[in-house]
């Protein structure tokens, strides 16, 4: 049985305006699910509904088959066994690190009056988050990264069946984020329950999550593994939101074996991947930067209209001569002048299912 199940969940804060609508979602035991989407798409609202800080306007939420929320009422947060880690860390300033971590156990009467760092569950959580040396320190003496470790340890110690992390790395320095991503992985491994992780950073979601749910304007557009979302987005919105690529108008001109067609665009014919039931005719093809090559010989078919240095390589934006307004991106080892004519070839593409 799925650990957590949302059935047509909607949340309306104000009349006429739905922050979330029609959310159907299963979250499996132990799963790492990222909620990804632009600002205002409803990620935090979904997190708050799972935590029990808000009740849905419509639909139901089940934890291990038990209904915890519906429009008729909601099980309060303290009875859901959910751990929440906020972006702001929300540590108690007057408690040392070990006391902060022990707080939820004390509040529930699960431990006696012994020093916090002697409580085995606290010592274990501190060790897992690399905080043994900091047990007696106070939050104001810690760096941002260390405070985030304390917030994670405090969540871990509760052994929640669901941990909710709201943009935990957003306020940290970019260099620190790499290290912290490793820590988030360790945190997930140490959890028994599922992890729902809110972010608007697609590289974070791709690197960490088992599955990613992409939200826009309160709707769940697609939920899939990072690989499938990137390779086989179901809609142009998802195709554009994740990774670097462009969507072109093409004509599917011939079937080329299971799940493959030949597509024509601007006089070029190239191979694309499709769903099994695709048919000949007009369609829209996603072409990623990695699928475009610059060739040394051939007929010139595009020109450089923009370029960006990525460190070690350049990202070029290329306009196709025979498809005005259509552009592709590719990576190149050296800089090319704007307006420079090039020969490009397209090695692969994906026919966006909603386009056929
Ligand atoms: N308490 C509230 N009262 C009224 N409207 C709200 C409230 N909380 C959120 N909203 C609205 O609901 C929508 C979704 O907001 P939410 O905070 O869930 O988005 P988000 O994806 O987490 O955004 P961000 O990435 O900017 O944090 C927004 O239009 C927001 O203005």
Describe this structure in words.
Keywords: ATP-binding, Nucleotide-binding, Transport. The chain has 356 residues and is α+β, with helices and mostly antiparallel strands. The chain folds into two domains: 231 residues, 3-Layer(aba) Sandwich (Rossmann fold), CATH 3.40.50.300; 107 residues, OB fold (Dihydrolipoamide Acetyltransferase, E2P) (Beta Barrel), CATH 2.40.50.140. Strand 17 and strand 18 form a beta hairpin. The model has no long low-confidence stretch (mean pLDDT 91). The structure holds adenosine-5'-triphosphate. The site of adenosine-5'-triphosphate has 12 residues, from strand 1 and helix 1.
Set out the fold topology:
Elements: E1 4-14, E2 17-27, E3 32-36, H1 43-51, E4 58-63, E5 66-70, E6 73-74, E7 82-85, H2 97-107, H3 120-128, H4 144-156, E8 162-166, H5 174-190, E9 194-199, H6 202-208, E10 211-216, E11 219-224, H7 226-231, H8 236-241, E12 245-255, E13 260-265, E14 268-273, E15 281-288, E16 292-295, E17 302-309, E18 314-320, E19 327-332, E20 341-346, E21 350-351
Parallel strand pairs: 3-9, 3-10, 7-8, 8-9
Antiparallel strand pairs: 1-2, 1-4, 4-5, 5-6, 10-11, 12-13, 12-15, 13-14, 15-21, 16-20, 17-18, 17-20, 18-19
Helix pairs in contact: 2-4, 3-4, 4-5
Adenosine-5'-triphosphate (ATP) is lined by residues 13-14, 19, 37, 39-45, 200.
